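Bench notes, afternoon.
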Amino acid sequence: MNVAQQLNTQFGINGHLNFIEDSPVKGTPPDTRPAGGLGAASGLTVAEISNAQATASLCLQGAHLMTWQPRSQAVPVVWLSRDAKLAAEKSIRGGVPVCWPWFGPHASEPGFPGHGYARTVPWRVVESGAEPNGATRLTLRLVTSEKTRAQWPHDCTLDLTVIAGETLRMEMTTENTGASDFVIGEALHTYFRIGDIGEVRVKGLENCDYWDKVGGSTLKKQSGDIHFSGETDRVYVNTAAECAIEDDKLKRRIHVAKSGSLSTVVWTPWSEKANKMGDMGQPDGWREMVCVESVNAMENVVKVAAGARHTMIVEYRVESI
């Protein structure tokens, strides 16, 4: 019995939750499915969710939610690059990467991976179930190893619960099981599928301070809605505000509500950087995505006391406009 079969026996939900290996994401529209299928010969395992409300998929490596599409939507809400690939110890372009236990470069070790190691290491399934409203719940826990402890020598657990239905809820909990306090940076680095980057706007961050990371790092204040006409990389700080992505082309509004997060990152690479990245879905995949990330970074990193826990919760919902 392989890993996927074992997981189906223990955690599968007939008709709602199924674990597979080395297969394209079923239910993913052809225009968003990576060429050649996800993860050929990768040996990685994917959880597929399909209920009356939505479809979703999640790679157990990195607890990386790759897709989410409510039945009410003609195109996905979470964007996955056409050139995304599954590979051992590699991050996936698109979806919702988990950034933990630091965000951005490590403060003192340039050789450590950017945004931490959580998105490229194995996680294990600890629970699954059906919610009373018909959504599907799946909880994963990060697997520690000598390699991870060399980068993060603190006793703790990290759990991610995904509840996929007409809305998508993600809960990430860090529990300090050791005797000493520690500080974490973290993010749910969500890529959203949009009609065109030049025709969307992000609302909800008016008058917020942000660090502009393009061409340096300068502190600015947001005036009005966020519009896009070039590379954008901003860390909005000291804000728990709900955001909305208004998309005239797809005629929908994506709401991003959060708790336990005091930073929001808004990012698009634009053409020059996207072309250098090589996995953004050439030639113009970058035009169909924008990242609005729920984060604790910079002055909003979180101190987790010994014996305490911290939970960041994000919920996404979509409405027509």
